[in-house]
Amino acid sequence: MQGMSKYVYRFGGGLSDGDASMKNLLGGKGANLAEMAKIGLPVPPGFTITTEVCTYYYQHNESYPDGFRQDVMEGIRHIEKIIGKRFGDADNPLLVSVRSGARVSMPGMMDTILNIGLNDETVRGLVRATGDERFAYDSYRRLVQMYGNVVLEVPRERFEEIISEKKKERGVTADTKLSADDWKEIIARYKELIKEATGRAFPEEPEKQLMGAIGAVFDSWNTRRAKDYRRVNNIPDEWGTAVNVQMMVFGNMGDDCATGVGFTRNPSTGENRIFGEYLKNAQGEDVVAGIRTPQAISIEQKIASGSTLPALEEEFPDIYRELLDVKNILESHYRDVQDFEFTIEKGHLWMLQTRRGKRTALSALKIAVDMAEEGLIDRKTAVLRVQPEQLDQLLHPMIDPSEKVDIIAKGLPASPGAATGKVVFDPDEAEKLAEDGEDVLLVRRETSPDDFHGMVVSKGILTALGGMSSHAAVVARGIGKPCVAGCSAISVDYEKELFTVGDIVVKKFDYVTIDGGTGRVILGKVKTIPAKLSSDFRKFMGWADSFRKMGVRANADTPEDAARAREFGAEGIGLCRTEHMFFEGDRIIAMREMILATSKEERRRALGKVLPYQKQDFVKIFRAMDGLPVIIRTLDPPLHEFLPHNDDEVRELAEKTGIPEEKIKKKLLSMEEANPMLGYRGCRLGIQYPEITEMQAKAIFEATVEVIKEGKKLVPEVMIPLVGFKKELELQRRIVERVAAEVMEETGVKFDYMVGTMIELPRAALTADEIAEVADFFSFGTNDLTQTTLGLSRDDAAKFLPLYLDEKIMMYEPFQVLDQEGVGQLVEMGIERGRKTKPNLEVGICGEHGGEPSSIHFCFKVGMNYVSCSPFRVPIARLAAAHASILAEKSDK
Amino acid sequence: MQGMSKYVYRFGGGLSDGDASMKNLLGGKGANLAEMAKIGLPVPPGFTITTEVCTYYYQHNESYPDGFRQDVMEGIRHIEKIIGKRFGDADNPLLVSVRSGARVSMPGMMDTILNIGLNDETVRGLVRATGDERFAYDSYRRLVQMYGNVVLEVPRERFEEIISEKKKERGVTADTKLSADDWKEIIARYKELIKEATGRAFPEEPEKQLMGAIGAVFDSWNTRRAKDYRRVNNIPDEWGTAVNVQMMVFGNMGDDCATGVGFTRNPSTGENRIFGEYLKNAQGEDVVAGIRTPQAISIEQKIASGSTLPALEEEFPDIYRELLDVKNILESHYRDVQDFEFTIEKGHLWMLQTRRGKRTALSALKIAVDMAEEGLIDRKTAVLRVQPEQLDQLLHPMIDPSEKVDIIAKGLPASPGAATGKVVFDPDEAEKLAEDGEDVLLVRRETSPDDFHGMVVSKGILTALGGMSSHAAVVARGIGKPCVAGCSAISVDYEKELFTVGDIVVKKFDYVTIDGGTGRVILGKVKTIPAKLSSDFRKFMGWADSFRKMGVRANADTPEDAARAREFGAEGIGLCRTEHMFFEGDRIIAMREMILATSKEERRRALGKVLPYQKQDFVKIFRAMDGLPVIIRTLDPPLHEFLPHNDDEVRELAEKTGIPEEKIKKKLLSMEEANPMLGYRGCRLGIQYPEITEMQAKAIFEATVEVIKEGKKLVPEVMIPLVGFKKELELQRRIVERVAAEVMEETGVKFDYMVGTMIELPRAALTADEIAEVADFFSFGTNDLTQTTLGLSRDDAAKFLPLYLDEKIMMYEPFQVLDQEGVGQLVEMGIERGRKTKPNLEVGICGEHGGEPSSIHFCFKVGMNYVSCSPFRVPIARLAAAHASILAEKSDK
Known about the structure:
Two copies of one chain form a homodimer.
Chain A: E1 8-12, E2 15-16, H1 23-38, E3 46-49, H2 51-59, H3 68-83, E4 86-87, E5 93-94, E6 96-102, E7 112-116, H4 122-130, H5 133-151, H6 156-170, H7 180-198, H8 206-220, H9 224-233, E8 241-247, E9 258-263, E10 275-280, H10 284-289, E11 295-296, H11 299-305, H12 312-315, H13 317-334, E12 338-345, E13 348-356, H14 361-374, H15 379-384, H16 391-395, E14 397-399, E15 407-410, E16 412-415, E17 418-424, H17 427-435, E18 440-444, H18 452-457, E19 460-463, H19 471-479, E20 483-485, E21 491-493, E22 498-501, E23 504-507, E24 511-515, E25 520-523, E26 528-530, H20 535-547, E27 551-555, H21 559-567, E28 573-577, H22 587-596, H23 600-624, E29 630-633, H24 647-657, H25 661-670, H26 683-688, H27 690-709, E30 716-720, H28 726-747, E31 754-759, H29 762-766, H30 768-771, E32 777-780, H31 782-790, H32 801-806, H33 823-837, E33 842-845, H34 853-861, E34 866-869, H35 874-892
Parallel strand pairs in A: 4-5, 17-18, 18-19, 19-20, 27-28, 27-34, 28-29, 29-30, 30-31, 31-32, 32-33, 33-34
Antiparallel strand pairs in A: 1-2, 1-3, 3-8, 6-7, 6-8, 9-10, 9-12, 10-11, 12-13, 14-26, 15-25, 16-20, 17-24, 21-22, 22-23, 24-25
């Protein structure tokens, strides 16, 4: 591989070949180990094999570049030199761990092998060096087990069976009751198992162990679960993983040992206190696996969680103080919350990892605001610290406190938000049900990476085991799903597909609600209310708005929506659809009369009945938006959508209007379309029936006059949909202008207004220069533009879109995330050409992409004046727009 | 109006302000009058009012620019000076005609007023000057009648009633039997009628008459029939018309007078003989109106047409010789066939008009070939002389000579080709029926411009009256419709909606066939065969091909189509659709099994049954195209199209396959789509079910090997449809390549092949640079590209497209004529970007636009390697492509 400078980057012993900026090459873990070593934190010495080696490995039929093995062994020499032990030394052997470490964390997705360097000979050296035979053989059997499972692919159960057998033989239930001799026997049986299952012996040579472990870690990059995880998290397959080889430190050498994980601030609440969990006399895996219940780090935390176990602050007060120093060093160095792992070996603190702490939306917000106010970061950085999508969690509904809820259990509040769904125990079943549109609540004893696909599709996750750092908790926070973890009161029976809480039996498909903010587990569906937004939230959004340069409007069709949009900070309405205004009550009858009419006069008469209702709707919306712009779109959907859909409705219509049923049915038939999406809709309706546009313009302008008379300010923007030809807009515009003049004449009130168009057909974008001649504004309808540009019906694409995402034909669902490469070209072209004709043309977006952060960045980049999205997504859009401004400013520097 | 140099261009008396190149300004007629005057032909002096004045007129609320009236009167002075008469002179008055004249001829669409200058006073001067009182008053009444009808808008019938009354009073039937005094009385009654109907008197002042007539001609530009004609013929409304004011010459002053029309060569056959018709003692209108049966110009023509009336050659031998000179002057000057009008006034020949002679396809071809061989024009010019669309007439089916046909009458062979249809007498009804998809044959006593809309939609036209130059004949030739004119044996009864021939009664909706090449009228439907192509045709197409630079392929799905395509000169197959190969016989059962299969294996098994059939189809097609390229498209339509469409078919399928009906119905339901056009089709099928692509590739390559083994040459091109993302093509290509390798391996035969894609989605065009990385060729599927770019479903657009054409929102039906402005941009972009990646990328078009001349010009302009169209349109495409090359070369010079 060309340009690969070196394969191995060392750290420890006052030396660091790498640093935190080298994540792409060294992975997140490796880069941070190098950085920690650099800033003087106690890191076990080791080295990192670069991601480039991984790439080489996959490009060269799973082989290594020349000289790689030598470099690895030089890395081992580096550790030996610092620590004074030798790899494979029969007396005092150096043991190492081999861990994966990609650019971004993929928790639990890839493999780890510990205790490498042990064999029948060196284990005796370890006995001698530690004086603890049981520990030494336990360590050895762990290596054989991990190696057998991970490298040699012998199923884990087979190893567990051997331990179970042994425990039965010895009449004990806990691993801890097994003696050194027991472990020796177990090791022998393990080795037999490996021989029998694979036909190969467990490798005794440490170097062979090491190389096998490195290969296994590279291989684990391409397991199904790792690929699934990358797909969901949009991590490119090409990145590859780095491998970290590091001196082993042991948290399980006795009661002066421990292992733990921590956050420099509380990852759920954001509170500025060290937060974490540890297990005495244990290895790191034991904490993450959620098998033993961990202890709190601080006394305060212990009390808050209601734990009865002593805190680290009590059991290891010196180490606790040392950790507080570490917290300060990490935060002032990284200027962000860190998530770290540590091990205490015989009273000595070793830092094994640090990385950016994942956090809930709530805590992200608090941390950002606090750190800015503490002077650790500036406000722009603070704004960038909260991902726009995270706000969704804050805006999600919570359980209505006034609801009488049937709380059946309480677990850990692992990821905030309320979720209601049908209980399902199997992740595959969860996936199936969710595909059918069901709300699913995944209930598991504990979760593992294999359950990921089921977690992603569930509304929430409930587990019986595991703490705040368990797999379930970490993943749920990452994907923003409510989660109650470690709810030990529940007892899960996978066989019978039910869980029990005392006498209560909850069966598959029963409804359960969880509150991830409090840990409550509630029987049945529960009413929820919108979250209350904190003062931190308002402060934070204020900062965001101060940096934001692009406007944010909302799509709102009703006065209620309009009011809500304004509450959420919308600066106008980017899209008010008028179709619903034809549906309520008797209006639909008048609308149907209009469609069935055979003359302009009949149509006008029927439309006349709808006019007052529509006008009143506009009046209310205008009042709510006083002073802010409002874009109203004229009728868009195919007319047949307004017609009756079954015989009963036909009969009713016939009775109410006196039009024969036969005639109605004939009309229905004549209006059927092969491809309604590409059919008789949008401005095509207004071109055929100018009286519809006329009526709508009249309702808009009469409402305008009424609201202006109340002393309010308003410049309505009339938007013509589905324009593909300049002349279409010209003809519709002429009608709107005539009606505006008539209303001014009749009422004696002068008002301003704009007439513009949706750009939602490729042809509109391509001829935007012409269309702009008769448009005061453009609004990109990227839903339809995506459908036409990709030739993809939103209603039908579900059949193959999942396959397309799996096959990486598309990287994103194109109706959620704007296809910048394809559709984006037309958007850019449309803006550029439109502004060539009218330099000050107002341009926005009103497709659903207007509320999606990466699409919002694009909208900013191409120079839109505003984005418009659903009211609930307005804060997300505001923040995303602020990010876009700040990042653009940074990249300009 | 700025930039308008002058309003009036004079001609005659050795002077010409204009010439033939000034058609845009002076109209076709005016420019040619100027030109004829310039080359010394005897043109009555006059002047032309420019089209700019017409434009001014419509832009300024139907008023004239300053100084216009003076200029007109100066034009009159110009005539007076030459001819020695004065306008309004009581003794020897100058009379003038006022005629329209647009850039292109719009036969009979606009108005003409003759004899301007006559009034109660000057008519007496005319009596004195001519010594013919009856003639003078007849001329006067003609003026009053025309003026009353055209300028003052009194219905024509009212005037005709007055004449009828008078004839009844006088007990005569022919106009010619009315005396001077009768005309005087009629004039008086006309004037009363005008006064009564309009409240205004007929203007006696010549100048007022003149200005009124000019205004009326301008107004006639915007009548409904003129607009209709322009819409059908794609003439812009903005062009406007010029007005020609010219000294009157009279063909009706006695038996030494006549009026006629002629062609320098036979417009039906192209034969190099003067050809025309005249009427003795008549005005020009009488010839065109088809009221009297005209006489032939030459004796030869007289004999050929079976006429019993003397020819001009006999009655006016000197004039005949003079006309032969005129023919030579015109042809050697214009180097093309001319269509001219003349009048003989008292033995003096006056040329009233000349213009490019309209001609049938057959004659156009013969004239072009002959003129090139005579040395009048070069071969390139000859090739340009035939419009590609005209070839359609030559290629149209003719009546099978072996058919026993029931000939009920014979008329004039006015426009070649055979047509069968339901007899309809009313043009509106013709339009209605044609909209319902019926074949219509329009039968009229004679046609007038008001019938135009009915003629356009009919398969053919049959008239009882009128000659080869009658309205019906001229228009039918222009629009390429078969026409039998002047079939005097038939008697049309509009009232009873039938026509009779002797005892035979043909009622509305009965089927009749006409043969416009022979004039035969046949009862019932008749079998037709393709036209035999003349040796002229082969010679001509040979010339065209020698200048053509772009390839022409055909869309052909069957071995028969392929053979026909080759006969028509196709240089390969641009699109072989494979869907039909799944429909025949039992294949459809296997295909349905495939769709209903639940595993890859089942699908493979079902597809295996189709493979041998598909392979045999390819073998035959490849054989037929030996040595020429063949593009085969993999399966494209939505799978549900292959499923049973009713209960019977479901039952049959259930029986044949053993799959329960329930399951089939469920599948049917699950495959329903909201917008199939944007749904689960094209390469999306092959991505989901790679085994389909696999089977098709296998069939293609096994067929390739078989044909190569026969010693034939072949490089099959496999085309993947509906690609929007590079990866789609990449995945499909991988399958095709694998199968190709397997087939080579199995058979030991090496072959070349190409893999390419349709560009039929906007996204494909936009990302063509990427797609080209994995494509060997592009073929633009402009049917679908038009649907997606315009957001217009071809199946549904019929509801509003007519309105869109009427409103001039679109200038052409976009599925017939490529939307160059919109869709064309994507085509251009796709080619440019594709070639940026692969400079030698083969690019073609396979949408229906590939057979449409203006679209073919576009394809050439943007650098396509070939166009592909239906076999019947291949010659049209060859000629259009030749035109494109020649014209590009010319514009380069």
